[in-house]
Amino acid sequence: MRRFNYRLLARLTGILLLVMAAAMLAPLAASLYYADGALWPLLLAAATLATIGLLLRNGIGRKATYELHERESFWVTSLVWIAVPLGGALPYLLSGTASFTNAAFESFSGFTTTGSSIIPDPSAIPQSILLWRAITQWIGGLGLILFVVAILKRLNRGALRLYSAEFSGTQQRKLHPHISTSVSRMWQIYTLLTIVLTVLLILAGNGVLDSVCLALSTVSTGGFMTTPLGMSGYSHLTLALLTLFMFLSGINLALLYNLFTFKWRQLKASQEFWVYAAVFLLAAGSSAAAFGVMGNGWPRSIGYSLFHIASTISTCGFYTTPPPAWPFWVSVATFLLILSGAMAGSTGGGIKLRRLMTLFIYLRNYLTRMLHPDVVFTVKIDRKVVPGEYVNKIFGFVFLYICFIIGGAFLLTLCGSGIAEAFCLAAANISNLGPSPLINSLGASLDYALMPTAAKWVLIALMLAGRLEIFALLAIVSPSYWRLRR
Predict the structure, then answer these.
(1) CB atoms < 10 A from the CB of 278, how many?
(2) Cα(57)–Cα(455) distance, integer angstroms
(3) What's the pTM?
(4) Range 45-49 contact pairs with CB under 8 angstroms and sequence separation of 24 or more
(5) What is the distance between the alpha carbons of residues 101 and 80, in angstroms, rounded to a whole number?
């Protein structure tokens, strides 16, 4: 049995904790500027993370060999996604913003880009903590592991294993033969989108801090909002900008990179993109029609439907005041979009459209084969054959996804939630959507702070399962995983 490379695991975790400490420099600067009283808690949190990070990186991980096997890759992925959000909870805890459970909930919700919040009035907390909330989403949006892959070129083949473990439930297109270069380009387009949206929001008349927080939350499809009324107080121009960038954030980042580098042929050849665009337009159009028929006014019905559908399909979770009459069809469409999510390789959550397309093609072929047994079919997407092993993996993923929703809903009902509310909460949080008008339409409350402690930890587990796409978490608790050899 090959020895477990725990030194490399410690080193990679330490590096990320150091990155978290460095990321607190921006909130520290904001705290100095606004004099909001959170300076010392942020300093203590940054010093704590830096100390632990240095001990892990230069102590336990000092003599680490950069030989990463599949066994370690799942451990790195799972441990990092637990250790870093716990470290990220320190600013909430030390500043007195939240208790331990609430701080952990807010931090996990941020890093997993879920957007569920235990802070009923974000405008009442220090501005620097508000900025930290948005930063956690932005860092977690593209993935903690992908940051390590981008900066540590010494991982070699281990980088590909980490990349595969991070996206354990889907196939990812690469932008370059070298995985670290591919990931670096993804970070570039991710950063560019954030900067462009920030500038546009400022030009639209929003404050600098507010624009930065909204841009970080939108591009990461996180959904943390800066006011207790959601997006209701913003101008139509601001909502239009957010609608556009939520739609863009639901597109595969590799495809976006090709789009911004004028390689439009890749976009034209992507079947998943055209399905994504068609689903968005169909859902938005039918929702606007449903709102309009119920007498809500056509301009408001169209504007709200575009914003709501973009927020839902991208799993961003922004919400604004809905029209007075809420059609049943909009609830159905919202729930289906929560489950489906956007394109594979985007920052959004959900099952992902590429998986659903693969299942649809496979089932269509299967039904046709029942009528014509001698015909041989293959599953093709973008004119490429999808391997049978990957199709089987999708069936397993969707089955587990549904099981997690049912199991999570069952546990939430034991914590006092109603059945309909429990299913919506479970589906929204495993899809990393978090807040949604659908929950309000059922008569439930979006105030997660009022939920029992046990219910919050159930939702945290669902957030992690959704962000890690289940397989990475299940791999490390499987008995066969511990019997893996070189």
Answers:
(1) 10
(2) 35
(3) 0.90
(4) 45/90, 45/91, 45/94, 46/21, 47/21, 48/87, 48/90, 49/17, 49/18, 49/20, 49/21, 49/24, 49/87, 49/90
(5) 19
Q: What is the pLDDT of residues 226-267, one digit of tens each?
A: 888 888 889 999 999 999 999 999 998 888 888 877 777 877
How many angstroms separate the CA atoms of 88 and 395, rounded? Answer: 34
Instruction: Classify the phi-psi angles of 321: left when phi > 0, otherwise alpha if psi is within -120 to 50, otherwise beta.
Output: beta
| Unique residue bearing structure tokens 């008569």 | 443
Nearest to 342 by CA among 325, 327, 358, 356: 356
Total residues belonging to the chain = 486
pLDDT band at 442 (very low <50, low <70, confident <90, very high): very low
Which residue type is seen at 439? I
pLDDT level of residue 167 (50, 70, 90 thresholds): low
- Residue 161, pLDDT > 70, answer no
Separation between Cα atoms, residue 83 and residue 76, nearest integer Å: 10
State yes or no: pLDDT of 313 exceeds 90.
Answer: yes
As a whole number of angstroms, the distance between CA 118 and CA 427 comes to 18
* 132 touches 97 (CB < 8 A): no
- Please state the separation of Cα 239 from the chain's center in Å: 21
Going by pLDDT thresholds of 50, 70 and 90, the confidence category of residue 172 is: low
For 287-292, what is the mean pLDDT? 94
**Does pLDDT of 485 surpass 50?**
no
Q: Using alpha carbons, list the distances in angstroms from residue 404 to 117, 397, 425, 455, 459.
A: 21, 10, 12, 14, 11
Annotate 260-298 with DSSP letters as a single string.
HTT-HHHHHH-HHHHHHHHHHHHHHHHHHHHHHHTTS-H
- Return the HEC string of 364-400: HHHHHHHHCCCCCCCCEECCEECCHHHHHHHHHHHHH
Q: Cα(54)–Cα(49) distance, rounded to whole angstroms? A: 8
| Calpha distance 360→23 (Å, rounded) | 42
CA 321 – CA 231 distance, rounded (Å) = 8
Rounded CA-CA distance 338/227 in Å is 23
Q: Which of 147-156, 198-207, 252-261, 288-297 has the highest mean pLDDT?
A: 198-207
Mean pLDDT of the chain: 84
Please state whether 173 falls in left (phi above 0), alpha (psi between -120 and 50) or beta.
beta
Say if CB 80 and CB 8 are below 8 A apart. no
